[in-house]
Every structure is written in structure tokens, then in C-alpha cells.
Description:
The mean pLDDT is 79.
Amino acid sequence: MVGILPAVPWLFDVLANGGGTDFRLRLPNFTYFAGCFTQPFEFGIEYTLAPMQMLDYLASPLLAGYATYLMAIVYFIMICLFLSQ
């Protein structure tokens, strides 16, 4: 219960000002549940990186200023190993 205390001022602010978001009911977002299958295997880093940052990450590391795409190769190998089992 102590852990919720920092959220109390935020909750009062959201309730008083509307929070700038829409609090109506919506259909479930099924892409959220897809994360259950991708996140445990570390295939879901695109959620923490923006799309352009993800492309830069896959092109890393840079060697003499040129993209080596070693991280893209590692991702490809991980996906192949996951699918082969």
C-alpha cells in the first residue's frame, strides 16, 4: 500500500483535470497480448526504441563509419533458433 502513495497526487490531478486523455471504454488492443510471446525472448526492443532508433540499432555497430548490421544478424539468428524448436 505504501508504494501507491506517490500516485495519489497524480490521481487527484487526473480526476480534476481530465488528464488530457479519453477515459471511455474501448475494444481491447490485441497487439498488447502479442508482447507476451515476443518480450520474454527479447524480440521486443522496438517497444523501447522509436522506429528510426530501432533501424539504427539493427545497423550497429559502426565500423570505420559504416554500418555492419551485426545486430540485425544476431536478431535473425535468434528468430531462426526460436522457430527451429
